[in-house]
Amino acid sequence: MSEPSYDHAVDRSHMKVSDEVAIQISQMNKWYGQFHVLRDINLTVNRGERIVIAGPSGSGKSTMIRCINRLEEHQSGKIIVDGIELTSDLKNIDKVRSEVGMVFQHFNLFPHLTILENLTLAPIWVRKVPKREAEETAMYYLQKVKIPEQAHKYPGQLSGGQQQRVAIARSLCMKPKIMLFDEPTSALDPEMIKEVLDTMIQLAEEGMTMLCVTHEMGFAQAVANRVIFMADGQIVEQNNPHDFFHNPQSERTKQFLSQILGH
Amino acid sequence: MSDTSFVRTEMLPPKPAPVSQVGVVKWMRENLFSGPLNTALTVFGLLVTAWLVQAGAPWLIHGVWNANSLTECRTIIAERWGPEATGACWAIIRVRWNQFLFGFYPVEEYWRLFLTFAGLFLALAPVLFDALPRKLIWGTLLYPLVAFWLLWGGPVWGPVGVLVGFALMGLAFTRLAPKLGVPVAAGAGLILAAVVWLYAVGPFESAMQSVLPLALPEVVSDKFGGFLLALVIGVTAIVVSLPLGILLALGRQSDMVMVKALSVGMIEFIRGVPLITLLFTASLLLQYFLPPGTTFDLILRVVILVTLFAAAYIAEVIRGGLAALPRGQYEAADALGLDYWQAQRLIIMPQALKISIPGIVSSFIGLFKDTTLVTFVGLFDPLKGISGVVRSDMAWKGTYWEPYIFVAVIFFLFNFSMSRYSMYLERKLKRDHR
Predict the structure, then answer these.
(1) How many A×B Cβ pairs under 8 Å?
(2) Is A125 near chain B, with CB under 8 Å?
(3) Fewer CB atoms < 10 Å away: N or C end of chain B?
(4) Where do transmembrane segments lie in this chain (chain B) (predicted)?
């Protein structure tokens, strides 16, 4: 396999999957107008799971994880996150969002605020944490993603990889129980992908529940406990990474894997 | 030996660059005479400038400041520069400047105007420059009521009653907002304040006045005119139209059908009719809709409609700023759990307003100049109203350019300062570093 392998470096001692359910999606469907984007999605995620979602573009993988924090609305079925069902009740939505961190393909940092302000904004306004304390937490996470020296710069002054690490730190400052990653490395230059993946691996090692849409199959092999393959708005196959990559069952999966790994 | 080997025995001292490559000569070569077209334009520009100067300069140079009538001006000019000479009669400004600035405001009360004007700068300072201590903003919030009392006079207890209404509104809002949400709390606060203003301020004022009389001589709205009027209308409309414009722009993007329909309807209606139509509505029609017997000050009515007019334009300017923001900013704010009003206040508006600064300031400048249109509803604006009054005086009949030039210069000073400030603000808020 040509993808880099992280296996030797990853410390799995804290990666424990508990019996407790973090996210439960049952019979979920979504349409854009007449277009049926997500069809009968059923997925249960336990606390501590690290799930990688793969699939061709347009298969609905981003839309699915965006439904988990209601950036997209589903039209039928049930989504229960951390015990709260997502309905049109705005209070519940905000509660879920403050427990679920999200990292975007294009970082979406706030360009008019410094890095430190980006990190402290939500804790101060949503969690009502005192400013001093929020700043201490922010510095702790900036240290963790290894860029504390950038705290007083603006996002526009940082490289793509640094911005994405700031975005991860910004989510972590809310002390989320679940982290969603929507193609976090797709907009990055190759030499910056590793620094972001390293940060994500570190997070996985600490036992974070993660759902990750990505094309980084090396990351999937190293960190994931489950790989989900989606096509045409449906979950086509899911398995542990070893069996998923070495013994795929469905034709669609085989075709996909041969396309992305077979160069 | 070949020439490939070379050893310098003497170092060269620096020499000055050729004259054609430095300083003024170089600049002129590059910018004024770089080609046939540019050279032709330069010559044409010089000719136009020369013609303007020869036409206007004598008139300005012959200007007379000390005279008591236009005839006197003309005599002085003829004596000094010959019978054919023309010249400006600035004496009209020297004699009547107070009317251009203050209209018919009683002279012995001018100190109130000076105080109000000085206060305006104190009130604006903490808004315009964020380096000043934030506590000064309380003074700014208090200023409108102080200014109102100083300008119109009457018992101090009226404005104090209005202030109590605002305080109750703020109290109701801060108490209710966490429970009922921002829009409902704001509505409840507004209703409470309106009730206080309509039913409690009057009795409160007369009661307090009988206990502790504290009043300035009253000056009625008819006495207002000139730049005093332009500034009262302009500053009030500018200050109120910005928040109103923001609300209209947000309303236009709302998912709630009624809010959206009302916002779109209001914006399109107001932008669709001339300001003068609205001013006539203010002066004539509005009275019909009010309960009989209520008198509603003409300046106040005009201010309200000018404000609505400006707000519609500002809403559209801000909509442009909102459209320029990537969707990701909304999504990131949502994903962090910020609610709608927090996201707007902390993430969306700071960026959208920054993008909209040039458009907003353009609207403000246009609005300030549009205040001269109030002349059509019988108010004395500086340009037509006061100039007309002054020129109808027998002593100054026939003066034409001087009042207009004077008024234009003052308008230019205000508007140019606004334009400069907006450029300063844009530079200061530039954060993209790309």
Answers:
(1) 72
(2) yes
(3) N
(4) 37-61, 110-129, 136-152, 158-177, 184-204, 224-250, 262-286, 298-318, 355-380, 400-418
User: Which long-range contacts does B162-169 make (Cβ < 8 Å, 24+ apart)?
Assistant: B162/B197, B162/B201, B164/B196, B164/B200, B164/B204, B165/B192, B165/B193, B165/B194, B165/B196, B165/B197, B165/B200, B165/B201, B166/B193, B168/B192, B168/B193, B168/B196, B169/B193
Statement: residue B293 has pLDDT above 80: no
Three-state DSSP state, B129 = coil
Q: What are phi and psi of A100, to 5 degrees?
A: -115, 120
* pLDDT recorded at residue B434: 44
Per-residue confidence at A29, pLDDT binned at 50, 70, 90? very high
Contact indicator for A76, A27 with CB cutoff of 8 Å: yes
Q: Tell me, yes or no, whether A158 lies in a domain.
A: yes
Angle at B328 between CA B324 and CA B333, to 5 degrees: 110
Position A5 in a domain: no
Tell whether A241 is covered by a domain.
yes
Asked if the Cβ–Cβ distance from B337 to A108 is below 8 Å, we say no
In this complex, the residue of A94, A111, A157 whose CB is nearest that of residue B337 is A94
As for how many domains chain A has, the answer is: 1
Share of chain B above pLDDT 70, in %: 97
Quote the domain boundaries for residue A101: 21-261
* The pLDDT of residue B297 is above 90: no
The pLDDT assigned to A53 comes to: 95
Beta-ladder partners of A25 = A43, A79
Domain boundaries, chain B: 50-89, 97-105+221-433, 154-216
CB B299 within 8 A of CB B286: no
Average of per-residue pLDDT across B342-349? 94
Instruction: Read off the tokens for A129.
Output: 């944490």
* CA-based nearest residue to A37, from A67, A68, A81, A69: A67
Search chain B and give the residue with CA nearest A124.
Answer: B338
Q: Is residue A187 part of a domain?
A: yes
Contact B396, B357 (CB under 8 A): no
What pLDDT sits at residue A1?
39
ipTM score here? 0.90
pLDDT average, residue stretch A90-104: 92
- As given in the structure block, the two tokens for residue A77 are 């079925």
Q: What is the average pLDDT across A152-169?
A: 94
pLDDT reported for residue A2: 41
Q: What is the pLDDT of residues B128-156, one digit of tens each?
A: 888 888 888 888 889 999 999 999 988 88
Reduce the DSSP state of residue A153 to 3 states and report it: coil
Residues of A in contact with B351 (CB under 8 A): 110-112
B426 vs B362: CA distance, rounded Å: 14
Residues of A in contact with B357 (CB under 8 A): none
Q: Is the domain defined by B97-105+221-433 classed in CATH 2.40.280.10?
A: no
Q: Which helix (H) or strand (E) holds A91?
A: helix A90-99
Which residues of chain B lie closer than 8 angstroms to A111, CB-CB?
Answer: 351, 431-432
Q: What is the pTM of this model?
A: 0.85
